[in-house]
Design goal:
The N and C termini lie far apart (100 Å). 37% of the residues lie in helices and 0% in strands. The chain has 71 residues and is mostly helical. The radius of gyration is 33 Å and the shape is rod-shaped. It contains one helix and no strands.
Length: 71
């Protein structure tokens, strides 16, 4: 039995997503955050440690140095 109270509707196909300005800005912001995160990581990974600058080696350890190479 058919229900006459409600009008039958047809499902409209969903619109295809367009690559608009909002999507471009989101991708740009994501790249900026990723770049800043990598820069911070690179800074902390390559900075000289301050703990080793003022400490001296124990007396039983002799630091070895390479001899100069003559070309």
């Amino acid at each position: 039995m058919r229900d006459y109270k409600f009008k039958r509707t047809e499902w409209t196909p969903r619109r295809k997503r367009r690559f608009g300005l909002g999507m471009f800005l989101r991708i740009l912001a994501l790249l900026a955050v990723a770049g800043a995160g990598y820069a911070i990581f690179d800074y902390f990974a390559n900075r000289p440690s301050q703990a080793n600058q003022g400490t001296h080696l124990p007396s039983h350890i002799i630091p070895l140095q390479l001899p100069p190479q003559s070309n």
